[in-house]
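Hi team,

As requested, here is the filled-out complex form for the 6-diazenyl-5-OXO-L-norleucine run. I kept the field names the same as last time so the parser does not choke. Let me know if anything looks off before we queue the next batch.

— J.
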Amino acid sequence: MVRPNRHRRAAVVLALLAGIFAPIAHAQATAQEFRNGVVVAVSRPGAEVGLAILRRGGNAVDAAVATAFALAVTHPAAGNIGGGGFMVIHPPGGKPTVVEYRETAPAAAHKTMYVNDDRALGHRIVGVPGTVRGLALAHQKFGKLPWKEVVLPAVDLAQNGFVLDQHEAASLNGVVAASKDFPEFCRVFGKSDGSRWKPGERLMQPDLAKTLRVLAEQGPDAFYSGIIADQIVAEMKAGGGLITKQDLAGYQAKLREPIHGVYRGYDIYAPPPPSSGGIVLVQMLNILENFDLAKQPRFAPETLHLMAEAMRRAYCDRARYLGDPAFTAIPNHLTTKSYAQKLAASIDLTRATPSADLAKDIVLADEGESTTHFSVIDKDGLAVANTYTLEHSYGSRVVVRGAGFLLNNEMMDFNRRPGVTDRQGTIGTDPNLIAPGKRMLSSQTPTIVAKNGKVVLVTGSPGGRTIINTVLGVVVNVIDYRMPLQDAVAAPRLHHQWFPDELRLENAKAQAATVQALVRLGHRVVPATKQGDAHSIWVNWQTGGFVAAADQRLSGHAAGY
Ligand code: DON
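And here is what came back:
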């Protein structure tokens, strides 16, 4: 057993000696540095829309809203108007806020509705979308430019098309081939002659252009009680879905206080429930603060072991306690330093703790594959971290007929089998059971790290439950290991989610000795191909510049000036 207090004292002394409490300042070899603002996102045309808004005098929130609408056109796997997400906003010197626009269960939903029908696609798995209300709320509270001006660039991309890159072409070809049960999907996203998309070709979305124009001209109410609402409800009726006019009219996005933690002197801001991201991230960081991570290399087995043990413990609490705060009481102790000290003391440095020893009665289910994160900062230092999703890649595959946009399959994120738990991945705990109007638990973790009110790092990722661990890795790489941002983003990633009791490691082949050492400690190590897609910004306090790193695991682009 370790004695974390001793570690902690040693860590504090070493940290002071090493100047860790000073803002991180390190050279950037490869990432681009911009003076006036930058948007870094999965799609080049999406990021460029945000940049154009910044150049026109819009602030980071205007740019984020414009980018979010643009990605609904240029990155249809996850960019959306038919899904939901979380936006963290950090005004310069001011109080950070979260715009929460998570989907809700329709009024007709009930606890056991998926017990005998657990299809991941189609109309019954759609949650009430939150994106349009969320973007409108962010814009209303923080935006500078007129609403229409931030929505119109997306209309143009849908109307006139945009050029597919290698990644988007391959993604569309794959999904169209697998979606024969969804003819409207194939009509909208396939080629009219049935051939395959090639990079360099143009995808045009005239129905979506019409919808976005209505939103630009009439505002968000068109989606929730106007003509678009009518189209959604007609689609639901035609396909046996549950969403009604009342569900749409009653949907509200919310302003929430972020979860705030302090990690080695840096402020961490990330979303509160209904995302698990903020609580789990801060809990893991608090545990790790009890150890002097930087005294050993980043990829030493000892480091990975400590990170995996922190992950295992925090994800166990995620399953036990977290859900929509309007329906379930969230305990206060999860993000306290004293609780983290107790958990740190329970870590054996010489042996992996079997996950089953932490709680014998609860197990986790798997989540989907596509979400997208982008980061924005403007010349005044206003920063935005936005993650939003349709849950799976291309969501439910239901395209609202005549309206050209995809609906989510976010109901997948509820615990869909009450009381049924097994080690393979079903969870039946109460906090995240389905109820009418309830928000399903998320792992989305758009995160802003700051010091003395000034932004240091903006990050976040897709990846279902791996999201929180991807963010943890980036934060540790930057704060503990002082890696240049591009390296911090590129470094191999690690994931443990309590159950299944295994440690997933990117680039495991190249780290054979480390893997062997982890196995000797009692970990089951599973090689992972790719984890996440963390488009991030680091503020260089020495130059005042904004360093942007587009994660290269998918395709990514930093558009700045
Ligand atoms: O909200 C969530 O946590 C999930 N619906 C996110 C799904 C996801 O990230 C899939 N991505 N790659």
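Two things worth flagging: The chain has two domains: 5-22+256-369+444-541, 78-253+388-416. The CA atoms of residues 3 and 373 lie 38 Å apart.

Thanks,
J.
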